[in-house]
């Protein structure tokens, strides 16, 4: 019986770590948040904190997973898949540290298949392409999406524009990330106006 209680406490502590770490990275920035900062905030040593994760990089990946989970649970009031992506990109302006983390880890994962983030990003892109392209396919059947646009290609391009604008925004926060994603979506969704 003590084992179950200990297991439940371990799960609760891991959840607390992820919640606190997400908030710290979002507010302080990815590079300015250390393992020690997170450990101190949850009342652990660095070694004690890493007991709950396979490595420091594993902790960072789990923070991104938690962010994705919260994004999926959020009610974005989006009328279509493009509007959903645009709403999420607009929200990212409020959490620059998480954008830094995403960009840094995605670069590491893309160049190193052994990196703990590699599987996370591969799965994330596969899931995003599958879900958004299915929604675009439905949108196409209902009429608002041009029939000559391939839903998978549109999804892939929108994700690329979104990720690329995040990188450019980190260099220059005056860029409106969402506006650029919206531009590409509008071009694909716009129907030809019938001749008069």
Automatic annotation (TrEMBL):
Q: Keywords assigned by UniProt?
A: DNA-binding, Repressor, Transcription, Transcription regulation
Q: Which residues bind DNA?
A: 34-53
Q: Where are the transmembrane segments?
A: none
Give a single Pfam family match.
TetR_C_6
Q: Which InterPro entries match?
A: BetI_C, Homeodomain-like_sf, HTH-type_TetR-like_transc_reg, HTH_TetR, Tet_transcr_reg_TetR-rel_C_sf
Superkingdom is Bacteria
Q: What is this protein called?
A: TetR/AcrR family transcriptional regulator
Q: Which organism is it from?
A: Curtobacterium herbarum
């Amino acid at each position: 019986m003590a084992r179950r209680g200990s297991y439940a406490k371990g799960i609760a502590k891991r959840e607390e770590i992820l919640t606190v770490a997400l908030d710290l990275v979002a507010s302080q920035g990815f590079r300015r948040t250390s393992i020690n900062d997170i450990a101190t905030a949850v009342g652990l040593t660095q070694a004690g904190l890493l007991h709950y994760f396979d490595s420091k990089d594993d902790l960072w990946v789990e923070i991104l997973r938690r962010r994705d989970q919260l994004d999926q649970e959020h009610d974005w009031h989006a009328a279509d898949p493009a509007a959903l992506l645009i709403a999420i990109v607009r929200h990212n302006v409020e959490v620059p540290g998480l954008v830094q983390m995403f960009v840094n880890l995605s670069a590491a994962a893309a160049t190193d298949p052994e990196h703990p983030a590699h599987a996370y990003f591969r799965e994330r892109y596969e899931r995003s392409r599958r879900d958004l392209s299915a929604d675009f396919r439905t949108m196409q059947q209902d009429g608002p999406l041009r029939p000559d646009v391939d839903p998978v290609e549109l999804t892939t391009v929108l994700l690329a524009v979104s990720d690329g604008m995040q990188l450019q925004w980190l260099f220059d926060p005056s860029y409106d990330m969402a506006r650029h994603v919206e531009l590409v979506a509008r071009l694909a969704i716009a129907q030809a106006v019938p001749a008069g």
